[in-house]
Structure formats: C-alpha cells, structure tokens
Write a structure and sequence with these properties.
Helix 2 links the parallel strand 1 and strand 2. Helix content is 47%, strand content 16%. The strands form three sheets. A four-stranded parallel sheet has the order 2-1-3-4, sandwiched between helices. It contains 17 helices and twelve strands. It is of the alpha/beta class. The structure holds 2-hydroxy-N-[(1S)-1-hydroxy-3-oxopropyl]-L-aspartic acid and iron/sulfur cluster.
Length: 302
C-alpha cells in the first residue's frame, strides 16, 4: 500500500480499536507525523497513564513498550515489530547484577530506564539521564551498582563522588558512541554561532566539550534558549526539533548516527499491528510488580 492509503487505514483502525499511537523522538519522520504523542520513554510512559484509550501502539524499542505496560497493566500495549530492540538494554543480563551484588552486598542497584523489565525487577531504583545524579546522591550508600550505560555511570560517579560499579563493564549505546572529539571540532568550525547539545550516552570526552548535556526531552525544553544548535544524538531528533521550532536552526552532528532498533518500525508495521493486535507486550506479574516499585521510587525521588 502507498503511504496515503496506509495512513487512512491506520486512522480507521485507531478508531475501531480505541487506540492511540505513541512515538519516541528517534522514530522515522513519517511515523512521527502520525503519532498522537511524541517524547522520550519516560514522558511517554507517564502520558500513557492519563490517556483514555484501550490500546497503545508504542513506536519505540521494546524496553520502552515494557515500561509503558508496567505502568499501565490494564491497557494493551503493542510493539509494531519485535525487531525494535535496544542494543544497550540487551547488554545487561540479570546475572551481571547478581554477580555484582555478591561482591557488593550492601550496594543499592540503580538502573537506567534503558533496561529490560527482567533486570528492572532486580533494581532498587531506576533513573533517567536527567535525574540519575540527584537520585544517586540521595541514596544512603557511598557505593552503588549502576547499569547498563557506562558513560552515564561515569557522569554519575564524577558528579556525586560516589563509587559506581558499572554492570556490565562495557555497557554502551553504539549510536552515541559514534560521536568523537573530531565531530565536536568540525561542528565548532562549520557552525561557529551554534551551541552543542549532547546526549549523556555519548563518550565522556565528547560530553566535556558540550554546551549542554541533556536527554531528548531536555533538548526540547532547552532549544528555545538559543537560535542555532548542533545535535549530538540519533539523527531523527533533528526532524523532531525542526518541526517543533521552525525558526531555530538544528544541524545533526553526524548523518550516520541512526538506531537500527528504532528504525525497524515502519508505517506498514503500525498498520499491521493495529490490524492483527500484535505484538502484545506481556510482563509476568511478579516481574512487573518489582519493576514497578523501582520505577515508582524514581518518580518519588525526582
Ligand atoms: O534510548 C535513548 O537513547 C533515548 C533516551 C532519550 O533521551 O530519549 O535516552 N531515552 C530516554 O527516555 C531515557 C531518559 O533519560
Ligand atoms: Fe538503545 Fe542507543 Fe537505540 Fe537508544 S539509541 S534505543 S540507547 S541502541
């Protein structure tokens, strides 16, 4: 089917199923264009609690759909394709956490929201890039186990002065790892009037040269503070920002910073997911209950 027809079919099925479409800021432009809500994973999960819909089609990667399901157990949450997965979240296995807990039995387990429900169930508290420093400082312990992003772990250790044990030792996002100091230097030369907005999943030496270090939600909130930016995160963020603020200039720091998991979702998958009610996310209740506690603790502490 052509896009126009697909979009009409999606609209029709949305009404029939009482469904809404939520999309992450890294989704393809044509997916962003049909979304009812756009945001980062936590904004979307929170939003999902307040919407009056029976079905949520989640255009994002699997851990995001799981988080939405954990906070909305009574709703049907659909992931348009099983290929939409996060390479970084997949690096952390429950065994990594259990092994670290053996070495540091008194250390709380702090997990970035970019993690599976199974691992969140082993966490004392979850964090986002925006509240990680605040939450770790508040914890009553000088040692914390932290996963899966070692760059965020570095940032947290530096800001809090605490001992941070990264699990796994090599956890990272391959999309954000692409950005180098050379990209920063090129951006400064090419766009001398622009400021640099950098995602905290980037390497420490890139973060150190940033004007601001923010999640995608933070990029949206801070963009109006200046009229030209170079954006160090997944490239579709530039589409999102440019559509929101047509009078501000945004340049991608690299054209090749694309997330394969995010890009796996097409309009056709969204149509098929509404037509066949697939792939419904299920989180076993004993896992969901524990993971929900860790997420709710974050919401209370931030
Ligand atoms: O998965 C990601 O890399 C995206 C992101 C974001 O900034 O949107 O990091 N996910 C966030 O929801 C996590 C929040 O700190
Ligand atoms: Fe995961 Fe990186 Fe893709 Fe975000 S951009 S979903 S952290 S692989």
């Amino acid at each position: 089917m052509e896009n126009e027809k697909l979009i009409a079919e999606i609209e029709r099925l949305k009404e029939e199923r009482n469904a809404i479409i939520m999309a992450h800021n890294y989704q393809l432009p044509e997916v962003q264009d049909i979304a009812d809500f756009l945001g980062d994973s936590l904004e979307l999960a929170r939003k999902a609690v307040n919407v009056d819909a029976d079905v949520i089609v989640f255009a994002g990667v699997d851990f995001m759909a799981e988080t939405a399901k954990i906070l909305n157990p009574e709703k049907t949450v659909l992931l348009p394709t099983r290929r939409a997965t996060c390479a970084m979240a997949n690096m952390l296995r429950p065994e990594h956490i259990l092994e670290a807990k053996k070495r540091y039995p008194d250390a709380p387990v702090v997990l970035y929201v970019n993690s599976s429900a199974e691992t969140k169930a082993l966490a004392d508290v979850t964090v986002t890039s925006a509240n990680a420093v605040k939450i770790v400082s508040k914890l009553d312990s000088d040692v914390v186990i932290f996963g899966p992003d070692k760059n965020l772990a570095y940032h947290v250790a530096k800001q809090t002065g605490k001992k941070v044990i990264p699990v796994p030792e090599y956890g990272h996002c391959y999309v954000h790892k692409k950005f180098t100091v050379e990209d920063v230097e090129r951006a400064r030369k090419l766009y001398p009037n622009a400021k640099l907005m950098v995602h905290p999943e980037c390497e420490p030496e890139v973060q150190e040269k940033a004007d601001i270090i923010v999640s995608t939600g933070g990029m949206i909130r801070h963009a109006p503070e200046h009229d030209e930016w170079v954006v160090f995160t997944e490239r579709e963020m530039v589409y999102r920002l440019s559509r929101l603020y047509p009078s501000i200039k945004f340049h991608p720091a690299r054209e090749d910073a694309t997330c394969i998991g995010m890009k796996a979702i097409t309009l056709n998958h969204i149509y098929e997911s509404l037509r066949d009610m697939k792939h419904a996310i299920e989180v076993p209740e004993e896992i969901a209950e524990k993971a929900r506690k860790a997420i709710e603790r974050m919401l209370e502490m931030s």
